[in-house]
Amino acid sequence: MSDQYAPPERRPPLGAYAAAMAVFNALFGAGLLLAKRRGRELPEKPAAGDIVLIGVASHKLSRLIGKDKVTSPLRAPFTELEGHGGPGEFEEASRGTGARKAIGELLICPYCLGLWVVAAFAIGLLFAPRLSRFVAAVFTALTASDFLQIAYKAAEEKGLG
User: Which residue, among 125, 135, 131, has the nearest Cα to 40 in the 3D structure?
Assistant: First the structure.
C-alpha cells in the first residue's frame, strides 16, 4: 500500500506516523479513563474562556517547543538546522528515517504539536484545573507580549517608536 502512496525517496515514515498516532490516542484515552475512574466529570459544555485560554496558550507553547532557539536542544537529536526563522526562532528539517524522522517532523511542526499540547491542557483541566489555567495564562500572556513586541518593532521601523 505505501508503495502506491509515494516512491521510496519521497515516502514519509508512515509506520512511525501510525505509531505516533497510537501513542497519542493511548495517552489521551488513558487520561480520560483515569479521570473517569477517579470521578472527574467531563464538563457538559466547556467554558468559552477555557477554550480561548487553552487555544492561545497551546499556540504559544507549541511554537516554543517547535521553533524557539532556546528549545533547540530538545529537537537537535531529531533535526538539523536550516537557518533562522521568525523572531527568536530557528527553521529546522527532520533527519534520519523511521521513528527518528517522524519525531523530528512532530517536533518542528507547531501545528502537529498543537494537538498534543491542547490534549495535555485538557487533561490538566480535569485533574488540576487551577494549575492548568495558571500555566495556560502564563503562555497566553507571553503570546500577547510577543504580539506587542512585533507591533513595537514595526512602529519603530516606520519611525513611530
Answer: 125
- Any idea where the domains of the chain sit in the sequence? 2-155
Alpha-carbon distance values, 149 to 64, 146, 154, 157 (Å): 16, 5, 9, 12
Mean pLDDT throughout 126-131?
97
From residue 20, give the alpha-carbon distance in Å to each of 57, 59, 120. Answer: 23, 20, 15
* Residue 87: C-alpha distances to residues 39, 101, 143 (Å): 44, 26, 13
For 81-92, what is each residue's pLDDT tens digit? 999 998 899 999
Across 67-87, average pLDDT: 96
**N- to C-terminal Cα separation, the chain:** 58
